Structure formats: structure tokens, C-alpha cells
Amino acid sequence: MSQGPNRLFDDFAKLMTDAAGVAQGARREVETAFRAQAERFLSDMDLVSREEHEAVKDMAVRALDRIEELEARLAALEAKSASKAKAAPKTAE
Fold first, then answer.
1. What is the largest CA-CA distance in the chain?
2. pLDDT tens across the length of the chain (93 residues)
3. What's the rounded Cα separation, in Å, for the pair 15 and 48?
4. Cα–Cα distance between 91 and 93 in angstroms, integer?
5. Which pTM value belongs to this model?
6. Count of H helices and E strands in the chain?
């Protein structure tokens, strides 16, 4: 009769262990389904990935740097042209 309560506890422990395993499996399935649904939702919204965003950001920075460089060259050419125009003698008509 001493085996009775121990066997009952052993069966109960086994049942709880099996229930915990089932719960973990269900949790993984719910997480997988949620991730798939979230990815589907985000792809329908036409959002860009972080990599695409960073690539476009880098392109914009390079373009702005190039614009600044070209503006400086243009200003130098305009100054050079203006100084030549002042230095040139005016012809009388």
C-alpha cells in the first residue's frame, strides 16, 4: 500500500510534464503563425528594409556632398569670371 501515494504523485508529475511540453509546442506554433502574419502585413504595406533604407541614405549623403563640391566650383568660376570682367578695358563705341 506504500506504493499507492508515490505512484499517484509519479503519474501526476508525468501528466504535468506532458502538459508543459504540449504548452511549449502550442506557444511555438502561435509565435510562428504570428510572425508569418506580421511579415505578410508588413509586406502588404510596401515598407522598405533597413538595408534598403541605409543604401538610399548613403546615396543621398554622397549626392549632397557632390552638390556642395559643385556649388563651390561654380562660385569660384563666377568669381574668376567677375574679376576678369572688371579687369578687361571697356571699349568705346
1. 134
2. 456 678 888 888 888 898 888 999 999 999 999 999 998 888 888 888 899 999 999 999 999 999 999 999 999 999 999 998 888 766 655
3. 47
4. 6
5. 0.46
6. 2, 0
